[in-house]
Design brief:
Elements: H1 3-23, H2 33-37, H3 53-64, H4 86-98, H5 109-125, E1 133-137, H6 140-157, H7 163-166, E2 175-179, H8 184-192, E3 201-203, E4 223-228, H9 240-249, E5 253-257, E6 282-286, E7 298-302, H10 305-312, H11 340-376, E8 380-381, E9 389-393, H12 397-410, E10 416-420, E11 423-429, H13 437-452
Parallel strand pairs: 2-3, 2-4, 4-5, 5-6
Antiparallel strand pairs: 1-7, 6-7, 8-9, 9-11, 10-11
Helix pairs in contact: 1-3, 4-11, 5-11, 6-8, 6-10, 11-13, 12-13
The structure holds pyridoxal-5'-phosphate (PLP).
Pyridoxal-5'-phosphate is lined by residues 80, 139-141, 183, 185, 230, 232, 257, 259-260, 286, 298.
Length: 453
Amino acid sequence: MDNESEQTLLADAASRAQRYLASLPDRAVAPSTKAVEALSGLGGALPEAPADPAQVLARLDEIVSPATMAMAGPRFFGFVIGGSLPISVAANWLATAWDQNTCLDAVTPGVSRVEQLALDWLLDVLRLPAGCAGAFVTGATVANMTALAAARHRVLADVGWNVEADGLFGAPPITVLVGEEVHPTVLKGLGVLGLGRSRITRMPVDAQGRMRADALPAISGPTLLVLQAGNLNTGAFDPFDVLIPRAKAAGAWVHVDGAFGLWARATRDRQQLAAGCELADSWATDGHKWLNVPYDSGIAFVRDAEALRAAMAVTADYLPTQSLRRNPGDYTPELSRRARGVDVWAVLATLGRSGIADLIEGCCRHARRFAAGLSTAGFQVLNDVVLNQVLVSFGTPERTQAVISALQQDGTCWCGNTVWQGRAAMRISVCSWATRDEDVEKSLEAMIRIARS
Ligand SMILES: *Cc1c(COP(=O)(O)O)cnc(C)c1O
């Protein structure tokens, strides 16, 4: 491909992407059945010979763009998703062009140091201890697992066992304490680490899903306590200020899964929700949820940098690992990986502390408006709306499910279903920078119209 066709191809990609983004506010949020069926147009046998890249790109755009869910748009409220701020998309494009293997400072100093800067800023905006080690990974699933690998190292090293060298066969047992409402991906991480998905103690929770403060058993021996900032249904927070000092006094490692809830710490008016969280040993959060950077982006923070390094660093004769500077690859499960910290740095540099607070607080304000609008219309909101999550029942489980399905079909907005403490509910999660007041009103209008029909 010559220079000129390369430039034309990339410019075409940029303008197709811009057209796509511009279409999001007005298109149906879910793709049509017809658009999904048309995906078969990409199939057929593997091409035997090269094709024109410009035509390949055009086919991708023409066939796949209509078959996407408008997750980046202003009225997607399913799961806990988040969009992508324009600066994060732009920085992501640039970093993709750089194509840096973000592992060794000596080889890719530019992006390695941007990641260190992004890490320092994240600790600052989230009000976590300066100087914690960090890892830019794919999401909170891997961030939780990464932090728990450091935890596994430390609690076993403290009783004279080297888990990286000798594995878990014959190791002293580790007690793992989690809440009844633990995220399923934390259990997956525990399974991958050899700690067992089921070999855990689940502690009782209250009506909002918060671990009960009186539930902590007596702790002895190597112990991990996993707490949660932001329940995926209710948005509730475990009582950190009570549980963490108690568990730490007994020698446990405390980890906080804060995939989205940790961002309450960046607000002006909701810091209290996560008070005491900074006393933990490690934390996991997502960039691709509430920070609104593109997939995939998660971050693990670990107070004990040596524990994280011990769990993750590799040495080999061909790798220039001796560096006075931080080698990102010493802290991540991956060796080769994209420069995820670049998108994060660009958002923090653009929004600053007050812009981040506005982003998080704005979503919480929208959630409150949803709750008020739906209860005024006579529907039952099942949770205390403290953050960005709203659970609403439209009556019987069948009725609630019928409303959710009809709403998804309608296309004005998209919400998913859940079961909260035995009750079927629609879950509204507001995490996108793109959602404006008029999007909330338009969505409320659709919800109420459908629920009444
Ligand atoms: C989303 C979420 C996860 C998993 O995060 P991924 O980014 O999807 O890997 C873990 N815990 C909580 C509380 C979450 O909301």
